[in-house]
Structures are given as structure tokens and as C-alpha cells.
Amino acid sequence: MLLTPTEARVLGTLMEKARTVPDSYPLSLNSLMLGCNQKSSRDPLMNLSEAEVADAVSSLKTQQLVRESSGSRVTRFEHNAQRGLGVPEQSAVLLGLLMLRGPQTAAELRLNSERWYKFADISSVEGFLEELQDRPDEKGGPLVVKLAKAPGAREQRWAHLLCGPVDEALWAGAGSARQTEGLALERVARLEAEVADLRATVNRLCAELGMATPPTAD
């Protein structure tokens, strides 16, 4: 299956809101439009009309990726991405993030997935990405691709293939701001991993010495 950019945005938004605002989910058409057009956590930014969102929902329903929710006076919609795409939960999370935020490194994906799913480490993210990249043809073929390293970048980024082949030249020219942000995220990810290791060591030593474990900061 191939999605249009609008369909990918609609599907990704439903996947995001199911995990980040479960009390407001499933979404009405208006709420879905607002989510698609929000200014944060979106790349590229879009300004979709309610009619465009409705058309995308209709198409996604025929592909069994979105379904209507019953039990409300207002028609609401929910995604069926994991089953429709035939992927495990972790892979669906990564695809949703790539649809909403564009190409990202494994470190960026791990940080951006915090409210969706807590991956144990960057290696875990890379493992699921590699499974999506090596997906056999009998299951529909690859769903992601690892892009060539951009000039000045330290890590390669991943992109989804749900909208077809990726124009690498377009993303390679995204600018220094994206590269700087990516480097910062990578540093944060490494620091978080180091802090977790240090905390585990401190807890182990306290247990061996019979001391109380120091409280952690919220």
C-alpha cells in the first residue's frame, strides 16, 4: 500500500493521540484536523482542511488502517495501524513517529517515543528498524529505509516508505538547525544512559553496604 502525505499525517496523528491523550480518544474529525495541523512534533508542518482530512480518513478506512468508533453522537475515528500493517507494537510506534516527524536517527526516535513506548535502549530501536527494513516481500516488503549520512551529521537517519521511495536529496538539505538538534538529542540519549548506569551502580553498592538507597529526582 502507498499513502499520500495527508493520509500518513492523519494515520500518524491517530496513532499519537491514542497514546498521549487516551481520555480524548477516539478523535472527532475536528480534533483530528487540529492534531494534524499542530505546530509541535510535526515535520513538515501542514494546514489541512476538514474536507482534506475527511477524504484521507475515507481512504484509510478502505485500506483497513482507520475505523469509525461506535457509541457516540459525534462520529469518531481510531487507527488500526498495527493490525493493518501487520507489525508488532514497537514497530508501529516507530512508523508513527516517522510519519509525523520525518526522518530521524535511532537516538531521536528513542527520545521522541517516550510518551508512546519506552524502549530499553537505542539498540532496541535499531533492532526493530532493521526488522522493518528487512521485511520480506511476501509480507509487503520493507517499510523503512536507512538514509545516507547527511553532510556534517554523525548518525544516519531512518525514513518510512509508506508514501513510496524517499527523496534523499530533499532531506539531506534540511539545514544545519536539524543537524544541531539531532546532535543534541543524541547527547541527551547518551547522558540518560550513563545516568541510568550510575544509578544502578549506586543502588547496588548501597545494597551491599546495607545503606538506604538515595532518592531519585523527579
Task: Summarize this structure briefly.
InterPro entries: DUF480, WH-like_DNA-bd_sf, WH_DNA-bd_sf. The protein has 218 residues and is mainly α.
Description:
With 218 residues, the protein is mainly alpha-helical. The protein has two domains: 5-84, Arc Repressor Mutant, subunit A, CATH 1.10.10.10; 87-209, Arc Repressor Mutant, subunit A (Orthogonal Bundle), CATH 1.10.10.10. It contains nine helices and five strands; from the N terminus they run H-E-H-H-E-E-H-H-H-H-E-E-H-H. The strands form two sheets. Strands 1-3-2 form a three-stranded antiparallel beta sheet. Helix 1 crosses helix 3 (50-62), helix 1 (5-20) packs across helix 5 (89-101) and helix 6 packs across helix 9 (176-209). The relative contact order is 0.11. The mean pLDDT is 89. It holds the Pfam family DUF480. Belongs to the UPF0502 family.
- Count the DSSP helices: 9
By DSSP, the count of extended strands is 5
Helical fraction equals 40-55%
Which sheet architecture does the biggest sheet show?
3 strands, antiparallel
Strand order within the widest beta sheet: 1-3-2
Family: Belongs to the UPF0502 family.
InterPro entries: DUF480, WH-like_DNA-bd_sf, WH_DNA-bd_sf
